[in-house]
Design goal:
The chain is of the alpha/beta class and 278 residues long. The chain is 40% helix and 14% strand. The strands form two sheets. The protein has a nine-stranded parallel beta sheet. The chain has a two-stranded antiparallel sheet with strand order 6-8.
């Protein structure tokens, strides 16, 4: 596995070439696909920097109405082709953990019906699809119907989609807020884990009171067991990107180079804590 930078996730907004330079300088081994230049040029620049390709986001709004879903699907083949041209083999998206309109079973069927065709198109270009459950109890509070919000439920959905290229976007935050443990991760393997996000949780807040958009840099508070989390990934032979997603507004106020440095240092710290090789 490799430390991977998604510039937008940490508030870095600079031209593509500069983003790659910042990623390399901050100790990252990879970067998510970025726009702003032709695919061949982007891939060549990544190779010159020694950077691997992380994961693209799924450009299909399957959580909205049918018209928006169909609009996204119309452009998916082109987006997948372009991603494959830069060497991207991973795509990921997240699931809403609750609904006021659709029951669990109906929502499950809707997700199968909408995500299966998307996964099939991605598969044509050798791209795997990772799905992310949202764990915090606060994200489901007050909603009429709960939906997928933990690992067993998500594995059931992946199996029901059944295309062979659908797995998990595994996020340390959602793993923690779903009350899951290292033992739960032992049921996974590299084939099932498509992408990984890492972050930490505020100290002094009960797990069921944690709010999804209030996080911290990986390893900052020690609330989330990053050594156990990363150790389990290493044990299963995970070979993909590990991307920080701290949702820290103050990072957006920093000069881009300083933001990259701070995030890179936090990643180096959890790598060391977990006993992983550089």
């Amino acid at each position: 596995m490799f430390r991977n930078l998604s510039p937008g996730a940490v508030g870095i907004s600079v031209p593509t070439a500069e983003a790659l330079t910042l990623a390399k300088g901050a100790g990252f081994g990879g970067v998510d696909p970025l726009g702003g230049m032709p695919p061949a040029e982007f891939r060549g620049l990544c190779q010159r920097h020694g950077l691997r390709i992380g994961a693209m986001g799924l450009p299909v709004e399957f959580r909205a109405d049918q018209a928006k879903y169909e609009q996204g699907m119309a452009g998916l083949r082109g987006a997948a082709k372009e991603a494959s041209e830069v060497g991207c083999t991973r795509c990921a998206t997240w699931l809403r953990p609750a609904s006021d309109e659709v029951s669990y079973l109906d929502n499950f069927r809707l997700h199968v019906d909408r995500l299966r065709p998307a996964a099939q198109i991605l598969g044509e270009f050798g791209i795997r699809l990772g799905l992310e459950y949202v764990g915090p109890a606060t994200s489901r509070a007050g909603r009429r119907y709960e939906f997928i919000h933990n690992l067993p439920q998500l594995l059931e959905l992946c199996g029901a989609i059944g295309t062979g290229n659908v797995g998990l976007l595994l996020d340390s935050w959602h793993w923690y807020t779903a009350h899951e443990t290292v033992e739960d991760l032992k049921r996974l393997d590299n084939r099932l884990v498509v992408q990984v996000h890492v972050n930490d949780a505020p100290a002094g807040v009960p797990v069921d009171e944690q709010k999804d958009n209030v996080r911290d840099l990986p390893g900052a508070t020690g609330v989330i067991d990053m050594a156990g989390f990363l150790g389990a990934l290493a044990a299963m032979g995970y070979d993909g990107p590990v991307t920080p997603e701290p949702f820290r507004p103050d990072l957006r106020q920093l000069p881009p180079a300083e933001a990259a440095r701070r995030v890179g240092a936090s990643m180096a710290g959890i790598w060391k804590t977990a006993g992983l090789a550089e």
